[in-house]
Amino acid sequence: MRYSIFTLAAQTFKGHRGWKPVWREASPKPEYDVIIVGGGGHGLAAAYYLASQHGLSNIAVLEKGHIGSGNVGRNTTIIRSNYLLPGNTPFYEFSMKLWEGLEQDINYNAMVSQRGVLNLYHSDGQRDAYARRGNAMRLAGADAELLDREQVRAMLPFLDYDNGRFPIQGGLLQRRGGSVRHDAVAWGYARAADRRGVDIVQNCEVIGLTIDADGIHGVETSRGAIRARKVALAVAGSSSRLAAMAGLRLPIESHVLQAFVSEGLKPLIDTVVTFGAGHFYVSQSDKGGLVFGGDIDGYNSYAQRGNLPVIEDVMESGMALWPGLGRIRVLRHWGGIMDMSMDGSPIIDHTPVRGLYLNAGWCYGGFKATPASG
User: With 90 as the cut, is the pLDDT of residue 303 above it?
Assistant: First the structure.
């Protein structure tokens, strides 16, 4: 079923009783050409583009839980390409262009909202660094505007511009940045891949890899053994654990990154704002809640929950930027497991094991890289 205004109108007259499941509830087959371990954004995007761009269809995506239960449903939904270094800016700009056409490509409303991303600066040195970054962005084809204090105040009059320690002097704005509904990204890619013959297999945990001297030949799962010519690992913070099954030790540490959402509010902030004097970023969801986050927890962990010192640090940064936040109640918070590489650079490559591929080490940049990484 293709979604459109005509489909919606037709279903309206039928009492919405004709909608079909978004994707099939597939059972694993004995053998596939490609198995992708991890049903998050990167794994689903890889499956979709292998099917749509390269004509493959005998593909399985194996997810140990349900689709959207991992990091793809646990982030703060921000997309941007406001990077400085030559290796980063073109890649994330390519991803941004894919985001801009994603909903038409996969025929699914992912709620792409290009509301802008504003990075605040608080000193002359930081202003100069942002000017350099903005120039690098524009050389790479991305958009960037350096705003002064009054231009920022016109956009966000409720921030604390005269903070004694961190006065706001201006900001670097990327208007094409913004946010996307994270779980809709997972559902949309799953639906689009399923329509091209990909098997989306949920509740199927990989517990071993079948490897010999000739390379990898399949995986052992909680639902039995599955053979495959090629296997790709796209499991974010669990990358080290699965790579260890192949005898590989990755230069990656797993840390919890917490996120928060407030009670629902009337429209208040229509862009994404980052605090330049601390790790804090905030936007407002379509439901009205303020979505915000900060730094990773400092210790290694595979738990999807964080600790109170980081919560305190995030709240302090938020109050320094926006004192009015003190009147708002936090509704809930959660954590995702980040795969932190030592130099902040991701890994998309084949491994020394023939037929085994790795997508890992995305640090803070995993969600915004989803289309391009696929």
Answer: no
The more confidently predicted of residues 305 and 277 is 277
Largest CA distance in the chain: 65
Q: Following DSSP, what letter does each residue of 126-172 receive, concatenated?
A: HHHHHHHHHHHHHHTT---EEEEHHHHHHH-TTS-TT-SSS---EEE
In the three-class reduction of DSSP (H, G, I as helix; E, B as strand; rest coil), residue 192 is classed as helix
305: exposed, middle or buried (Cβ count in 10 Å: 0-12, 13-18, 19+): exposed
- The string of DSSP letters for 86-98 reads TTTHHHHHHHHHH
Closest listed residue to residue 319, CA positions, set 154, 152, 165, 147? 165
CA atoms within 13 A on the CB side of 206: 30
- What's the rounded Cα separation, in Å, for the pair 30 and 227? 6
Q: Which domains does the chain have, with CATH numbers?
A: 24-77+182-251+344-373 (3.50.50.60), 117-177+253-341 (3.30.9.10)
pTM equals 0.95
Asked if residues 254 and 237 have their Cβ atoms less than 8 Å apart, the reply is yes
Q: Are 211 and 202 in contact (CB under 8 A)?
A: no
Give the rounded distance of the alpha carbon of 373 from its chain centre.
11
pLDDT per position as a tens digit, 309-344 = 999 999 999 999 999 999 999 999 999 999 999 998
User: Which pLDDT tens digit goes with each residue over 216-244?
Assistant: 999 999 999 999 999 999 999 999 999 99
